[in-house]
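re: that complex we talked abt at group meeting.

here r the seqs, copy pasted straight from the sheet so there may be weird spacing, ignore it
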Amino acid sequence: MKPAPFQYHDPRSVKEAVALLAQHENTKLLAGGQSLGPMLNFRFVMPDHLIDLNRISELAYIRAGTDTLDIGAMTRQRALERAAEIKRVCPIMAEALAWVGHIATRNRGTIGGSLAHLDPAAELPGICALYDATLTVAGPKGTRRVAMADWGVSFMTPNLEPNEVLTDITLKLWREPHGHAFVEFARRHGDFAIAGVGCLVALDRTGKARRVALSLIGVSSAPVRLAAAEKLLVGTDLSDNAIQAASAEVAKLEALADTQVGAAYRKRVAGVLLGRAIKQAAGRAAQGTKR
Amino acid sequence: MTDRRKIELTVNGVRHVREIETRLTLGDFLRHELGLTGTHLGCEHGVCGACTVHLNGEAVRSCILFAVQADGCEITTVEGLAQPDGTLHPLQQAFRDHHGLQCGFCTPGMQMTIAAFLAENRHPTEREVREAISGNLCRCTGYQGIVAAALDAAQRLRGT
Amino acid sequence: MGARNVGAIVKRLEDPRLVTGRGRYTDDIVLPGMLELAFVRSSEAHALVKSINVSAAKAVPGVIAVWTLAELGAIAQKPMVQAYPSPAIKQDITQYPLAKDEVCYVGEAIAVVIAANRYIAEDAAQLVSVDYESLPVVIDAREAVKAGAALAHRGAPNNIAATVAWKFGDAGAAFARAPHVFRETYYQHRGVAHSMEGRGVIAQFEGAMDQLTLWSSTQAPFLVRRYLAQYLEREEARIRVIAPDVGGGFGPKAGHYAEELVAALVAMKLGRAVKWIEDRREHFLTTTQQRDQWWEVEVACEAGGKVLALRAKCIHDNGAYLPYGLLLPMTVIVPFPGAYAIPAVEVTLDCVFTNAVPNTPIRGAGRPNAAFILERTMDTVARNLKLDQAEVRRTNFVRKDQFPYETGARMPTGVTIQYDSGDYAGCLDMVMKTSGYAAFETKRAQAAKAGRWIGLGIASYNEDTGLPPYEGATVKVLPSGRISVELGSCSQGQGLETIAAQIAADQFDVDPQDVIVKTGDTAISAMALATVGSRVAATAGPSVHLAATQVREKAIRLAAQQLEVAEQDLEITRGAVHIQGVPGRRLMLGDLAKRLVSGVMVPLPKGFTPGLEATAYHTSERPVYANGTNIAEVEVDIETGAVTLLNYWVAHDCGTMINPMLVEGQIVGGVVHGIGNALFEHMKYDRESGQPLTTNFAEYLLPLATEMPPIHVEHMETPSPVNPLGVKGAGEGGTIPGIACIVSAVENALKPLGVKVNEYPISPERLLELIDEQRGAARA
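got the structure back, here u go
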């Protein structure tokens, strides 16, 4: 399984990359290559021009502030997994990354690549959804910002034109004490998620939920913020009844089916995971406030 | 008109300068350009791990990397694990001692994965070893001998 | 000479080269001027090929030629050889080396591109345009077997390749008088072999010498040579087939494939060496598999659980062609009654053509299928009569005092089925002890309190190993004094070089690491057949022993003559023959060898033939029977259907173990293969179009290290009286009961709900469906 021939370009700056995209037709951007590489080898895609982003050092960075976490699109997943700043300000991302493929794929795979490829089961887009991330995109006319909620256009199609490059990802951090949990169900370690839930919970002084964020991967064509479920949970004590009501929201989603897993089963598992994630996040939130 | 590039890279400590087609994968480059056939291609879609080599010290799948991407880099393959005088790396010896291989096809990739893992984690638990090799397929051994070899190698490398 | 190496853990001779990446697999071999092949393959499951346009492909720089069947020459205008002819075959349909006019499965080879390298070959293959006229497709064997079904082959009378049956005893009478009869239906699916190295072949033809040489990633070089000789109408002496290092086989590499034949034809026509290496996508599409079976089973038994008779009908998906005759279907039915003394059995199997890649044996062949039926039937009896699973098996086992045990069945050749030796109840006792079987219900109750659903499954088996009639060996003492062993048999990871060295070394008191072993080359004199069916240790092993013993005896006889002493006063220590108690007077084996090489005008020692060497064949008429019992502990997540494997115990008996470390490797590897089949592996085809749906490793799930349980193996050694080493095979003993064991455990975990699991692979989604159905039925 050998790739079809292409013209190879390795720009050293975003500006150069954008210029190449403007100059050529039938282009593909190469980030980590862990998803694109197989597609090239299978000849599912046959670009005339392969634009390798791996030499653009300005695109790899992690900047943890008080309000935001800024990450360059070409930052390696393995770097994110091991970074002290990530563990400090966004521990759920480090936990979710343990579910992303395998060490060798994380050594090359990037956060930008994951977002641009937008596999429905991808964990990092789910984390970005959880934090209402803003994505910065560079094109011939300059840069534009896309809210994560507007990122997924359709199945594996993000809000990204063929002549644009995703450059930065900004997550809005939770400043208040909160608990987090990332729970995923896959057939084997590192497999594509059948469903996965990211949950952030902040409690008020009485132990009731003051703020809840829930994102779901694997079920819909893009990560989903379960806004209705979040609303149902705020103000509750996150008991089994409250969680059950929230889980019922999952049943309303339209779910994907593929050769491995049916739609109804996906939603059913998602409902189970939702309960487990909320319980774990709530437990951590409670532990946090006790200290 | 094929797209070609000149690349310079170090493989197992030896510097190579070659002109190659840009679509040539790193795995094929190592095997056919350099004749280092120890790195194997089991799937060519980045799942089986048989093609694993080290790029600047990190385990990577050479079937989904292009040789041009390794320009200026340091590559280590299975052929670079043993000493120049032939003394086996403790991991290779452990594989032999614990029957961590049968047909040997997944073995180079498996060893490169474990070698990189042990460089970062000197006291792994069995669970951690299994997770570390979860990206490497073996159809012969059922993994038990490989895990035993990895844990034994960790001990040897610690010098205990 | 006592056995010092046989029975010992000896480190493998293969490892030094394999751990350092210096193995020599087919794709590692480079010949001068070698070209590479890529195949144009059918994108339709069933179609007529109306036209093939190769002009654009031929124009690609670096392409030497693009050929269809016509260009392969007059000799190739016929279907491939039937590897296992049988009068029972009703429709003997094999594939053409390249499609003639009809293609019958997605992936069937239509044209071949010959180019400078594989990249260019694939570029050109993409440019070949094929015009298809679609024909009706049949994928589901249950549909294919019906009258009026879509035909897998145009113009065929029906889709039945053959119907085979296995009968002994009077099942009718047993069913008539039995107090209990239980009926169940089952679905079985084995999947794809997925050796980590795919197939591959290099063909080279030297016209002046009229010599064709193939390097092939094969399990059977001698058979490949035979089929090539037949097809090409060449003398076998003008064909050499070599199995270099082979990265796993598991069955499908024992067949003979179109690509091997096409490579040979291309090499002969072009006069250039050509190489074809299978990529993983091609392995999914074109390497033979073992797929679907549907079973109807009824068992007649007594109140105490003693089985009186078993009747079963099977619809077996054979795929589009019959390259392997009826070997696979026969291995499905012949194992009955398995480890049990069941007096009457009637099994019939319809071997059915479908428009998917052909089915041939994968690790265990039909034995795991038979074991599944036997084991689920034992569980069925236990469940219905409320008896203990282990005790039902014990009640039915062939007893130790019954060996050699005639089952009552007879092969088509007339040979009766006779189990040579074993202690089935002994293995059962062993594994029940190590698994803590007796205390499990207490463990289950405690787990239930914590909301956990755990189960224990059990499966027993026996296996016809060491399939007759032979695998030969040549043992030589070299002029240097080193021992050499040459085997026609070949290895795909089993450690054949090592066990051969161990066996030979014992006759000469040398280090096995110093023995030179060569395998898998038809140019080597000792004949061989194939490395399949757990047969080589029990056939080649004794041959090595016989040959080494003959060489030893010749050395002693010659030394006795040279030293003028009696033979019984001599012994061999560390590669030298010396007089017992007189270490100073000795003759090096190498010198004795040189003496028997002699020289021009130098007489040989009186009464001696040239060469300190011997070729020997241990021959047998019957297989030797290994056996064992496996127990698995699993946990089911009742909310997701996920199955976690907690523990796995094996007690097995493969007779004398030549190298216990290698045996354990085979058992553990085989168990994991069984786990893969039970829970993960499903090769899916679209029922309408016949398109394969799972064609990469993300869609087809192989077992990973993270999901495997600790596998504890215990050995019993009941040596076989059939061969001089007492060896039985071990290559498939983990897989044969493994699938049934896992399924039994999953069912056992759901015992409180009364869920029955009569199928595999069993996915979490399917398990929830079964649970829902059972709960729904319980409520109704």
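couple things i noticed - The domain at 7-52 of chain A is CATH 3.30.43.10 (Uridine Diphospho-n-acetylenolpyruvylglucosamine Reductase; domain 2). The two ends of chain A are 56 Å apart (CA to CA).
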